[in-house]
Amino acid sequence: MSTGEDAKEYAEEKGKELANILAGLSCEFATTATLTLTEAPTLLFKEGDDPDFSSVMLAHDSEELEKQKETKKNRDEATNAFMYGVDPTMMVNRNAALAEQLGRFESLREAMPQASFGHVSKTKCDTGVRDALQLPADTFEVMVKLSGNSSSVNLGDALAASGVLGEVQKNLGIDSDRFDLVAEQYSLNMYGKGGHFKKHKDTPRGSDMVGTLLVQLPGAYYEGGALEISVGDGLKKKVVLEGHPSVSNRSYYRQQVKWQLPDPTKLRIAAFFCDIDHEVLKVEEGLRLTVAFILRIKEKIAAELQTSDINSSVLPKSLSSSEKETTLAGKFVDLCNDEAFLPVNPLKIDVTNQWQRESGYTRFEERPIFLAFPCFHLYTNSQVFTKKTESAATPLTSTQVAMLKGKDAVVGKAVLAASEKTGGAVKIYLQPLVDHDYTDQAGGSYLMPKFPTPKFKVPRRMSDDTIETKFKTTGCFEDIWPIWVLDEELGHKPDKIGGCEWNSDGYFGNEASYIDFYVKSFLRVEFAPSAERKKLIQKARDQPRKVSRAPAAKRKANIAAATKPKKAKMDNPGHYVMSRGTSPGLEGKEMAEKDAPPPLSAGKGISKYFAPAPLATLENGLSKTVARPKRSCARAVTKPSETDSETESSSESEKENNFYVSESDESDWS
Questions:
Q1: Is it true that the peptide bond before 432 is cis, omega within 30 degrees of 0?
Q2: What per-residue confidence (pLDDT) applies to 213?
């Protein structure tokens, strides 16, 4: 390969082979389960002096059902239904169930306040967005009986004891060797007739929160009200927790399907990652009652780094048993051994224009080249960049990769496995990006050292120069040469962080346009030059890495720290207040990071192109970015209505970095 273009073309062919492997890999973004009980659960309340409101049985009263079936109103409605082709017996049973549960839940409905939701920096109650009732976790308790137990236990404990949490953890691909999945009770939610919740995300509450788990309580019959979960701006959808088909669907009833109430000993469960869009569809009739849990990961003990014989074909145990994942890791190893794959990096490319070529002058520029994988999930600094020294310029450690989700985690684990096997010849980085409405017409997305935090607010006016300064960018896509292994559009939908007036050169008269800014990210996989890779691989074969273990005292301390989590406290129904503290396993986390291979040197690798500006410079609000000419092009003058920039509360670690964390407008629990 004599030119940079030839080397890039060869690398693109190899990237397609990686894409074929990932295309056949299915990673769940949501999963379902069922918890089987020996009898119907009981809903207990911890506050209030009314004895009639101290508990509610989560099962229909058979005697009351028979009374409701004989009422004149019920019989009249059944007769009318028959005229429209609906089975009258089915209608009688349905109406009796609706009337019985209405009386059983009457006191509870009167006591439950309107559910709120987060919008920008405010907590709002708007039935147009969310029409539901909600109780905080510290006011109620659901008691259940499992098979083989004579006494009742709390629903949260039953989820762990029954193995449901383990099943959810496995289906979502959360590393079970490193983490335990813990369900933390958050709220009781009730949706009546007409109730709904528009598409939204559940805002992450702390770096250890990974998802949401909903338990559908029995004894509350409803029609409609399904939970629709979607990813990739609706590219994939999953519908769960559906109610009984509505009576308006006459074709269903003409099929003479037997109608019956749901089994009160079968609890339906749905779990999904917290950054996934979901929506509660309109409840056509009845009551939809759920308990929401926050899913958190708790580190078991200090992670013991796994090793393997470098001369063996067996990859490290950090990978799952999936054959596809193992194949992907092996492919990265093959690329490191391929001398024709990216022999030098950065590559020299011919940027000579026509006038220079006619004058007999040739001009070359160096462009860093790497494999790029769009992220399928949303991340924050508190999850992946928890230290001041961690940024897009430093390779991800095993601790950071453990926080990735879905296909992102598959790629991260595969690269780490290949890096261990090749002595650090390949590295993986998480690269945040910022876009605006006209980015594609200019020089492409801007590169950022970290994600923005809630301290950041988009100013009223911006130009290309102020974008680079305000966002502390380290360059843009025209300065690099990414090879997209997967289509960039398949990644996580960019999150809006605000808008302003903008002109590329800073002229804000009639020439200015209104633009919105968006944040997204991708995984950057770098390879050392082939000569350096050869040396690193040979060194790894000669000196296999030793097993690193945390001291016994620290391991015991970490085990003791993994105590039962407390229930989430709510200062109001729309916000969750998290107590700050050190997570278990911190010592082991630091040791694991010490064992991570160092980044490629600036002279030999391409990390220098992504290095953030010096700390002193950042504190002064200035950023020394990659030098490049100003860009200007025709812009649309149409100015849509301005929307507020979005802000959310941040953790202590996020406050150290003056950037903004992108969150959803509507943040609460379904």
A1: no
A2: 96
In 274-323, where do the E strands start and end? 277-280, 283-286, 288-299
- Tokens 């979607």, located at residue: 230
HEC readout, 559-586: HHHCCCCCCCEEEECCEEECCCCCCCCH
Express each pLDDT in 530-550 by its tens digit: 999 999 999 988 875 555 555
Rg (CA), the chain: 28
Q: Are 24 and 223 in contact (CB under 8 A)?
A: no
Count Cα atoms within 13 angstroms, Cβ side, for 654: 25
431 alpha-carbon distance from chain centroid: 16
258 burial level (CB within 10 Å; 0-12, 13-18, 19+): exposed
H helices of 443-490, where?
A: 464-470
Give the C-alpha separation, 44 to 188, whole Å: 12
Burial 14-40 (b: 16+ CB within 10 A, else e): bbeebeebbeebebbbbbbbebebeeb
From CA 574, how far away is CA 447, in angstroms rounded? Answer: 34
- Spatial CA neighbour of 442 closest among 492, 409, 478: 478
CB 406 within 8 A of CB 173: yes
Whole-structure pTM value: 0.69
Structure tokens at 164: 């449901």
Residue 135 to residue 133: CA distance in whole angstroms: 7
Give the type of residue at 633.
C
DSSP state of 649: -
Residue 526 has pLDDT above 60, yes or no: yes
Angle CA 449–451–453, to nearest 5: 125
SS3 659: coil
